[in-house]
Design a protein that fits this description.
With 292 residues, the chain is an alpha/beta fold. The chain folds into two domains: 142 residues, Elongation Factor Tu (Ef-tu), domain 3, CATH 2.40.30; 136 residues, Rossmann fold. It is built from seven helices and twelve strands.
């Protein structure tokens, strides 16, 4: 999501929260009332309790939150493919809140829980705070609008992810593949620093087996520790995500890709998504690109 859009969504969400907490009967812990899916509407917010946390690699943790009081084990989150949640916290007792978006990796019909993969950035305010949490700790989340995917709106989509930017792409590709009515083909190009950063490669391989011919992946590793593709049990190209890599992977209008979704760090965004960037070179106009 672009910064102005994110800022606007955050402002609306926080405004709604303030109004809610000031309204009669609001409690200190504002909750979406009832056992209904807590994030079914926009804006909506809920305080979730961390159920478990696990290290995935040297800088990524899997955080699993219970959907919370009033939401039983059979309650779904109410999120749609591809929504994200804004985490609002006060790390280290700060006066001003820190707000950052995170994309659950759950399927929309998962019940009772939300799962996140959070990468810790050096001096990262929110990511360091989330990494410090222990089971039982609570975080306030707001739903923010995401891209509203409609089954078969494209015959073939390209997903281009950089590092931890994989999470929105993963949510979208699972949503497409698991929908029995959706025949869209997906090509994912995922650029990372080392093989260790390919945190969802096993899940992606399982999806390729489960949905033959629907998902193509191309991993691109800039500083592989094993040196050669395949030696760490995964094949990849060495280097960065360039025009040549995208073309070879089939992410171009010539290959029938109708839309490209991008999620990645600022430098990669500048190289790929800018008006005169690599995606424009490959024939994608503004309408055929979406940046999470
Ligand atoms: C729609 C959306 C969904 C997202 N989903 C996820 C998710 O599921 N999991 C996840 O881990 N993150 C996700 N992010 C990124 C997340 O919102 C934060 O940007 C990230 O956790 C860093 O926040 P921070 O407060 O820790 O870092 P800050 O305190 O803001 O920054 C600390 C340092 O880290 C650098 N940094 C911050 N963000 C990035 C970045 N993305 N790439 C490279 N360097 C960076 C900054 O330049 C700075 O030097 C998502 C972002 C968006 C826009």
């Amino acid at each position: 999501m672009s910064s102005p859009a994110l800022f606007a969504a955050a402002a609306v969400a926080v405004g709604a929260y303030v109004l809610y907490t000031r309204s009669a009967g609001a409690t200190a812990q504002a909750e979406t009332p009832g056992g209904k899916p807590p994030f079914a509407s926009f804006p909506s917010f809920r305080t979730l309790t961390l159920a478990k946390t696990e290290n995935v690699n040297h800088n990524v943790k899997h955080l699993q939150f219970d959907l919370g009081e009033g939401a039983g084990p059979d309650t779904t989150s109410g999120l749609t493919v591809t929504s994200a949640l804004l985490a609002l916290t006060f790390p280290g007792g700060r006066w001003l809140p820190v707000l950052r978006p995170y994309t659950p990796i759950n399927d929309i019909d998962d019940r009772g829980r939300l799962d996140f993969l959070v990468k810790q950035y050096p001096n990262g305010k929110q990511s360091s705070h989330l990494h410090s949490l222990q089971p039982g700790d609570r975080v306030l989340f707001f739903r923010i609008p995401g891209y509203s995917w409609t089954a078969n709106e494209q015959a073939h989509v390209g997903l281009v992810a950089g590092g931890q930017g994989i999470t929105p792409c993963y949510q979208l590709l699972r949503g497409i593949l698991r929908n029995g009515n959706d025949r869209t083909r997906v090509t994912l190009v995922w650029g990372v620093n080392t093989e260790e950063d390919l945190i969802l490669k096993d899940e992606l391989a399982a999806l390729q087996t489960q949905y033959p011919g629907r998902l193509t992946t191309q991993y691109v590793v800039s500083a592989p520790s094993s040196g050669t593709s395949g030696s760490a049990g995964v094949s990849f190209k060495r280097g960065r995500v360039t025009s040549e890599v995208l073309k070879a992977a089939g992410v171009s209008t010539e290959d029938g890709v109708g839309k490209v979704f991008f999620s990645g760090p600022p430098a990669m965004e500048k190289a790929l998504v800018a008006r005169d960037g690599v995606l424009a070179e490959l024939g994608f106009g503004k309408k055929e690109m979406h940046k999470f």
